[in-house]
Design goal:
Layout lengths: L1 H13 L1 H22 L17 E3 L4 E5 L2 E7 L7 E9 L14 E12 L2 E7 L3 E2 L6 H7 L5 E10 L5 E5 L1 H5 L10 H6 L2 E4 L5 E7 L3 E12 L10 E12 L18 E6 L8 E6 L9 H5 L10 E5 L5 H12 L1 H7 L6 E4 L18 E6 L6 E2 L2 E3 L6 E9 L2 H13 L13 H19 L20 H7 L30 H11 L8 H15 L28 H22 L1 H4 L3 H22 L5 E3 L11 E3 L2 H14 L10 H7 L4 H16 L2 H13 L6 H12 L11 H19 L7 H20 L6 H18 L3
Parallel strand pairs: 7-14, 16-17, 16-18, 18-21
Antiparallel strand pairs: 1-2, 2-3, 3-9, 4-5, 4-13, 5-6, 6-8, 8-9, 10-12, 11-12, 12-13, 14-15, 19-21, 20-21, 22-23
Length: 810
């Protein structure tokens, strides 16, 4: 054993270097092997992405398509530049959106910028809600308190060969369900029970680049439990168009908004102000019209604009209607001449494929008038604008196919008594065309920046609307932008009267105010003195008054669908005509067609027409005129309608609304259009008007008028007059009809609502309601003891029980 140990030590001593060498060799070999397995880093080249078979489209960005991949080559000089991203529906399933969403509908509009951050390109949404000059210290705070959201982050794949551009893969972005550019909003997702985007059935259709914009078409398919159509498919397929356009490097000089002249607006909070608070600024929305010859323009000559406003007609527009649509656009040429421009606006047919193979209605460079195959009865005039200045970039007018049916029906109902050519279901083509022309003109007005002006229909005296010369020259309202569609005041025998609306003097006034270039003005503030002067020249002339459209408005002069400056007189004429139409309605419809479908439809709309005439008179009760002024103008902004006119209006309502309108209940119509529901239908209309009269806002307004006016109609007096009028039978032995019984119960219910309203419990409203219910309690108690028929007696006892339960719910 000892000999073996000695031998081992001798061997170790003799061969140590060889053993260590082998170990080192083995270790070195292992290290070398490890190094060989490490991947060598390799920078991707432009040629790795853009190959010989790559399709490239030159434009704002180079767009590359390689197999199923799409790349944007973004010039570095465009990083940080502001662009407008507009999302539109290009094609959609039947029934989507309930009839008011269609091909061409805009779903979102946002300013975006492409920015580089390290090895990524960020697509950020930019806001103009708050602004400040970047030279001011407060600019840092504005930026810090208005952080711009990142819509998407892209990896930089590589740079262009000359290093002037970056290459990013946009495939995933445009093939994913990005909510900010989706065609299906949160409400639609809930309504149709949208589950998810099916990637296997969704793809990028095309991406095309143009000099100032890039257009993307996406095909998306979603799994949905309750799709609007083809329910068994459990699917919604929708085609989207994303337009991204480079905004002008230098924004158009904006024009400050003035609420005395109607314009749509853009706005922001301006922190550049030296005042003790930030300025809230609003600018009007308008197209950029600049004269080709500035010197001639300054001399007052008519000058063409550098870039006119051009609308392209949808190729789907029926040929017989095209000339009327074109006229509706071209009618604004004369209006723009008032602002110093000739040939400022026009309509054209779109270029053929031979003329321009890349023309698309979705291309944001082109404005269009779309003809939509839809049963919806409507037309709209939306536009896209630069939020920095209000410059309108593009607009798409929407015309729905069935809209003319509404106009035919109203033409018959509102003018048939005085207009023989309206007494038919086959309205003459030229008259239908004239209606369409004026609807298009109205929608073009919206697209030019003009909102509804509901005061314009109040500008003309009622009697003047029966005069042929006056109406042919001035139309039936001072602007096309009011909802004054037909002359329902003209009576049988009035000669030469115009029945269809047209452009008016206010249109010339407002376009001049918004579009005329003011020489020498270098800033929006510089223009104010001149703009104020134009308003001062027309002050106190009702033709040039602007009245905003409000739901539940308070100004008797700014009402939807009314015409003439006296609502009582106008509605008297309207109902007088409507009675003639009601009597002849079967003769003009079912007698001609040998079916009752049109009679039923028109009878329903006849009730709606009567309902509108009543609503105009209701607007007088508690009415307060609004005449926007600056302090240097004479008169008050708000003035109460005189008491006598309010009382006259209420008496009219008691006679023409709350007294049973037997002329509306023609048995020849009712017995052939429905088996039941007549009482309930009339009751719904009467209840609607009663609730409107006894609306808390109206009553509060009347209570407040006692403070601001010496000539007011007290709320307590008005409610008392209503109670006396609706329960007039209770003062005699007169039996109460079924219509009146229902109305009387409704009055009690409405007073109960006012008594128990949380908003009104500490105001005079609850006191008035309690007082009138107490008076009614005595009135119906006495009435129930008189000699009346059984159902009337039961009715009074039921009324008494209702009143007691309201006054003493315990």
């Amino acid at each position: 054993m000892k000999k073996l140990l000695i031998l081992s030590l001798l061997l170790a001593f003799i061969f140590p270097s060889e053993i260590n060498a082998q170990r080192k060799k083995s270790k070195k070999k292992t290290e070398t092997s490890t190094e060989k397995t490490k991947p060598k880093s390799k920078t991707k080249k432009y040629s790795d992405f853009i190959k010989k078979d790559t399709k490239t489209d030159e434009g704002l960005f180079k767009v590359h398509e390689t197999k199923d991949k799409f790349y944007y080559e973004i010039p570095k000089e465009l990083l940080g530049k502001e662009m407008l991203l507009v999302s539109r529906i290009k094609e959609l399933p039947s029934g989507f959106g309930g009839g008011y969403v269609n091909a061409g509908s805009k779903t979102n509009e946002q300013v975006v910028v492409w920015e580089q951050f390290k090895k990524k390109i960020l697509l950020k949404i930019k806001s103009y809600n708050a602004i400040a000059n970047d030279s001011l210290p407060i600019y840092k705070s504005v930026k810090s308190n208005n952080l711009e959201p990142i819509l998407y982050a892209f990896d930089i794949e590589t740079e262009s060969k000359d290093s002037t551009a970056v290459l990013i893969d946009v495939t995933k972005f445009f093939s994913s369900d990005v909510k900010a550019i989706s065609g299906i909003n949160s409400r639609a997702r809930t309504q149709y029970k949208v589950k998810r985007l099916d990637a296997s059935r969704s793809f990028i259709n095309t991406i095309k680049s143009y000099p100032q914009n890039v257009e993307v078409v996406q095909d998306f398919t979603f799994d949905a439990s309750k799709p609007p159509s083809n329910s068994r498919a459990q699917t919604i397929s929708i085609r989207m168009n994303q337009s991204m356009i480079l905004l002008p490097e230098k924004p158009m000089m904006p024009r400050l908004f003035d609420k005395r002249v109607g314009y749509f607006t853009v706005g922001n909070i301006d922190y550049n102000s030296e005042k003790l608070k930030a300025d809230s600024k609003k600018y009007i929305r308008r197209w950029r019209l600049e004269p080709k010859d500035k010197e001639a323009y300054a001399r007052g000559e008519l000058v063409e604009p550098i870039k006119p406003i051009v609308y392209y007609l949808d190729p789907a527009t029926p040929e017989k209607l095209r000339k009327y649509i074109k006229q509706g656009v071209d009618d604004w040429q004369k209006v723009f001449e008032t602002a110093g421009f000739k040939n400022a606006i026009m309509a054209k047919m779109p270029p053929t494929k031979e003329e321009d193979p890349e023309f698309s209605m979705e291309d944001i460079r082109y404005s269009s008038i779309r003809y939509v195959a839809s049963t919806t009865r409507n037309a709209t005039g939306p536009s896209v604008s630069d939020p920095r200045s209000g410059e309108i970039i593009e607009s798409d007018i929407i015309w729905y196919h069935n809209h003319l049916r509404s106009y035919r029906n109203r033409y018959l109902l509102e003018t048939g008594a005085a207009n023989p050519s309206a007494r038919t279901l086959d309205t003459p083509a030229e008259e239908i065309g004239e209606m369409m022309r004026m609807v298009i003109a109205h929608e073009i007005g919206h697209a030019l920046g003009l909102p509804h002006n509901m005061a314009a229909s109040y500008a003309y005296p009622v009697e003047s609307l029966r005069n042929g010369d006056f109406t042919q020259k001035n139309g039936i309202a001072a602007t096309i932008m009011d909802y004054a569609r037909y002359n329902y005041i003209a009576q049988p025998g009035d000669e030469g009267v115009r029945f269809i609306r047209q452009l008016g003097p206010y249109d010339h006034y407002s376009i001049n105010w918004g579009y005329r270039v003011i020489p020498g003005a270098g800033s929006p503030k510089d223009e104010v003195k001149t703009l104020d002067g134009w308003i001062d020249q027309k002050a106190n002339d009702p033709i040039y008054k602007f009245g905003i459209q409000r739901r539940g408005g308070f100004d008797p002069a700014s009402q939807t669908e009314g015409i003439g400056n006296d609502q009582v007189k106008a509605s008297n004429y309207g109902i007088k005509n409507l009675k003639i139409v009601a009597k002849n309605l079967p003769q003009w419809t079912s007698d001609q067609t040998n079916n009752y479908e049109d009679l039923s439809e028109l009878y329903g709309e006849l009730l709606g027409t009567w309902n509108r005439y009543v609503g105009h008179v209701i607007g007088n009760v508690g009415g307060v005129f609004e005449d926007n002024k600056k302090p240097n103008q004479k008169g008050n902004v708000y003035s109460v309608l005189p008491k006598y006119k309010q009382k006259e209006s209420l008496n009219w309502l008691l006679n023409n609304t709350f007294t049973t309108q037997n002329w509306l209940l023609d048995k020849n119509i009712l017995a052939n259009t429905n088996h039941t529901g007549y009482v309930e239908r009339m009751g719904r209309y009467q209840n609607r008007h009663l609730s409107s009269l006894l609306n808390e806002a109206r009553l509060e307004r009347m209570i407040n008028s006692e403070v601001t006016s010496y000539d007011f109609y007290a709320a307590s007096e008005m409610v008392k007059d209503i109670r006396k009028g609706i329960f007039s039978e209770a003062n005699s032995t007169q039996n109460v009809t079924v219509y009146r019984r229902n109305l009387q119960k409704s009055l009690i219910d409405r007073l109960g609502v006012l008594l128990n309203s949380k908003n009104a419990k500490n105001s005079d409203i609850s006191s008035i309601a309690r007082g009138e219910l107490t008076a009614l309690k005595y009135q119906v108690t006495t009435a129930s003891k008189r000699a009346v028929n059984s159902i009337t007696k039961y009715h009074y006892k039921d009324c008494l029980a209702k009143i007691n339960s309201i006054l003493d719910p315990k």
